[in-house]
Amino acid sequence: MALVRRRQPKPETGYTSTVFADLAIDWVQAQTKPWFLWLAFNAPHTPFHVPPEGTHQQGSLPAYTTGMDPMPYYLAAMEAMDYEIGRLLDSLPEETRDNTIILFMGDNGTPSQVAQVPYTAQTVKGSLYQGGINVPLFVSGPGVSRTGIDASLISPTDLFATIVELTGESLPEIHDSRSFAGLLTQAGTHRSFQYSEMDNGTEDAWAISDGQYKLIEDAQGGQELYDLSSDPYETDDLLQGSLGAEAAAALAALEAELGVIRD
């Protein structure tokens, strides 16, 4: 691969996750003032491959070839990324690690080749179904007193305002970024709606949810409506039958908010 630094590509033969972690470790160790690091691994990702020995627990894997079960290779890449994150954290002096807030977020669902039931190849990465857009977000560090799962609606755009507020500045909301820093210490509400969209040159569609009901709409006017509380894997399109009063009201509210967002 080629590693681009300051717009200059240079050949790189190391394992990507290891190279990224090495760069991060070297950069952090060179800092003399409070710092912010954005580390974006591209793993786990295709093409399926065997990560370096010692970075995963999938055993002795042969080189991947088309037709083989890709799952062990995908899991190995995930474990190798986790290994490198651990190596980065272990490189921090204890006092630095204790004073560092860590945010970890996925960018999309798994690729179709490793979709697992109840998801399908059509409802994971590259789709607007929950298997494609509902990703993990973990926050840990000083000032984070809550534990467990928070069901608040959060968008990746919210990271900007949240990180600014965590530095001590006051920026509760700017453009489409809304700080969720308050959720790190106490329960509360964040967004009333969560919006996603995709345009891959073939499909142009968008989705909006209020946390319970979710509307998916495409550029041709097609719509699907799901009740995520009773149907989290989106198998029952409510628009294929008669809507009850609650679902009809939710659909109207989702369509109205969608009009505001997309206006």
Largest sheet: 4 strands, antiparallel
Percent helix among the residues?
A: 25-40%
Q: What is the molecular shape?
A: globular
Amount of beta strand: 15-25%
Helix and strand content put the structural class at alpha+beta
Radius of gyration: 21 Å
Described by its quaternary structure, the protein is single chain
Discrete helix count: 6
SSE diagram, text form:
Elements: E1 2-5, E2 8-11, H1 16-29, H2 71-91, H3 94-97, E3 102-105, H4 130-133, E4 137-140, H5 158-166, E5 173-174, E6 177-178, E7 194-199, E8 204-209, E9 213-218, E10 223-227, H6 245-262
Antiparallel strand pairs: 1-2, 3-4, 5-6, 7-8, 8-9, 9-10
Helix pairs in contact: 1-2
Describe the structure.
It is a single chain. It is globular and about 60 Å long. It contains six helices and ten strands; from the N terminus they run E-E-H-H-H-E-H-E-H-E-E-E-E-E-E-H. By secondary structure, the protein is an alpha+beta fold. The model has no long low-confidence stretch (mean pLDDT about 95). It has helices spanning about 15-30, 70-90, 95, 130-135, 160-165, 245-260; strands spanning about 1-5, 10, 100-105, 135-140, 175, 175-180, 195-200, 205-210, 215-220, 225. Strand 7 (about 195-200) and strand 8 (about 205-210) form a beta hairpin. Helices cover about 25% and strands about 15% of the residues. The strands form four sheets. It has a four-stranded antiparallel β-sheet with strand order 7-8-9-10, with helices on one face. It starts with a strand and ends with a helix.
